[in-house]
User: Fold this.
Amino acid sequence: MQPTLPIQISQAKIAEFCQRHQIRRLSLFGSVLRDDFSPDSDVDVLVEFEPGSTPGFAIVTMQQELSHLLGDRTVDLRTPQELSRYIRDRVLSEALVQYVQD
Assistant:
């Protein structure tokens, strides 16, 4: 059972978003999973793309679309490779998966 999140997430819309953008895994991390999440907090999102898929500048559009799907909150979209090596292992172990490609 997944913990209750402080934001509303439509799993169907997240799945459609991921399929359209060739994302094989989408997870949440950071303050959205902790007690210090506030109305002003951004939502940290970790994505893993399908092999060979590189979004380039389209990542900006993806962030905007995700922001809309997550209640118009600021979204910080990251891939595992972009995470600092100092926090990568912790983030990967604590991230809460919202979508996994079948």
Q: What stands out?
A: The radius of gyration is 13 Å. The chain has one domain: 11-100. The helical segments are 11-20, 58-69, 88-94. The chain has a mean pLDDT of 94.
